[in-house]
Amino acid sequence: MTFGFASSSAASVSTSASAASASRLLEPAEWAAAGIPLLRNPREVVSGLHARHSPKPSTAIVAVLDPDERLCASASFTRRPAPADGWMFRNALLAQLRRVIPHDLRRRTPVRTAVLLYCREGEARWTEEDGAWMWGLRDACTLHGLRCGAYITLTGDGWQVLGEGRGGRHPNAHSDPEPFAMSEAPPLTPRTGGPVSEVLRRAAAR
Hints:
Elements: H1 8-23, H2 28-32, H3 42-53, E1 59-65, E2 71-78, H4 86-100, E3 113-119, H5 128-144, E4 147-155, E5 158-161, E6 166-168, H6 194-205
Parallel strand pairs: 3-4
Antiparallel strand pairs: 1-2, 1-3, 4-5, 5-6
Region (Disordered): 165-206
């Protein structure tokens, strides 16, 4: 077994890797300057997602809203115990989006908006982990053809839309979900045609 110091080249690679990782997060000022659309009714969105997914600490919920702020799709997953990294968060969010809703990359301008609710321990103030989630959400939205929407934290103190200063005490990271009817966008009408669909239409009308 030998001991020694890392070579200068290895040290420089390590330093550049750390710098790249550190750049994959957004500071509150950068997030505020990004023109993130405001939620008309954040309490309704938070309460609806909390009732639907029952998040516990380390749970992330990504939801897609239509222009009327109705829920199109949502998915939740547990954050793995690893250092916060925006690139890893981006990949996790993108995988969930691809699983629950088709992309909008063919549109010239995004129509639907993705928001992220992250349930965690600690204080409600911004952390570097939050900055990594913000970076990941923004990048995942770009790659899926969506508008980047609000980033919301859910802690023991309640919920807060970071960058907006809006929040509330309930629900929180430890509260039980309550029955809540979150408005949903109607499902897309499937393309039909021909005699088979006509038979199905008549059968449904009976």
